Amino acid sequence: MGRKGDRTRVYAGMLLGVTALCTLTLLLAAGDSAIRAFAQQGAQATAAPGPLRGMTVAVDAGHGGYDGGAVGRVSGVPEKGLNLDVARRVERLLRAQGADVVMTRTGDYALCDENPPIRRKLQDMQRRAALIRMNEADVVLSIHMNEYAGRSESGPQVFYREQCQAGRLLAGAIQGAMIEGLKPSKNRPALGGDYYILTLGVPSALVECGFLSNREEEQKLLQEAYREQVAQSIVQGLLDWQTLNGEKPEPLPAVDRSDEPTGE
Fold it and tell me: Residue 71: what are its φ and ψ, rounded to 5°?
C-alpha cells in the first residue's frame, strides 16, 4: 500500500505540473493583457460583509506606462503613480465595505501594445472598457489628478457623462463627500464632461483628486496621509449615493465608438 500510494502521489503531481504548464503556455500565447487579467482574477479576494456587498465596482487608475499624465509643477512627479496609489486605497476600502472590485491596472503600465495598429491611447481605453464590461461592473470610478495653466486653481473636481442623470447623482455624492472630507479652499460642483470612460452604460464618475499645478495642493497630494483621506472621501461618496432615497435613474446607453479615429 505504501508504494502504491507513493506512485499515486507522484502521478498526481505530474498531472498538476502538466496542467500548470499548459495554462502558462496558453497565457503566453494570448499576450501580456491576458496574463494580467488572469493574475488579477486570481488575486481577487472574497468580498467581506458590508453595505456594498453584491456590487461590482470598476476602479480605473488613469494613465500609466508611457502615459504619465499631468506633472507636479514643483516636484515633477507624474500623476500616473499617484492615481494608482489612490486607486489601490479605494480598492481596499471598497472591499472592506463588501464590494467586488475590478482594477483596470495594478501597476505602472498602459493597456496597449508597444506599436498597435491604432492610436496607443485609443487601444488603451478600448481595453480598459473591455475589462470593465467583461467583469459586468455596476459602477465605474476613474481616478485622476488635475492641472491648469494657472497656479491658483485648486480643489477636487468630479465629472459625469453629460446629460446622464445616473452619473450626475453619483458624481454629486462623491463631490459632496470630498468637500466634506478634504475641506478644500474652493468648493467645486460636479460637472458634465465628454470622457471615454464615462460612456460604458453604467453610473460612472471621473474623479480629479486635486491640482498638481497648484503648489499647496501638490504638496498635499504627495503625502500618503492625504491620499488616504482622498480615497476615504471617494468611498464615502459612493456609500452616500448607494443610500440615496428613491429609485435611481437608469444610465444612458453605452456609446458605440467603432468609428473612433484610429490615426495618431
Answer: -125, 135
Q: Which domain holds residue 100?
A: 52-242
Torsion of CA 221, 222, 224, 225, to 10 degrees: -50
Give the integer Cα–Cα distance in Å for 247 and 251. 12
Domain count of the fold of the chain: 1
Choose among 106, 70, 100, 64: nearest CA to 88.
106
pLDDT tens sequence across 114-146: 999 999 999 999 999 999 999 999 999 999 999
Q: Does 16 map to a domain?
A: no
CA distance readout (Å), 187 to 73, 153, 244, 249: 22, 11, 22, 26
Q: pTM for this structure? A: 0.83
Q: What CATH number should be reported for the domain holding residue 204?
A: 3.40.630.40
pLDDT classification of 47: cutoffs 50, 70, 90: low
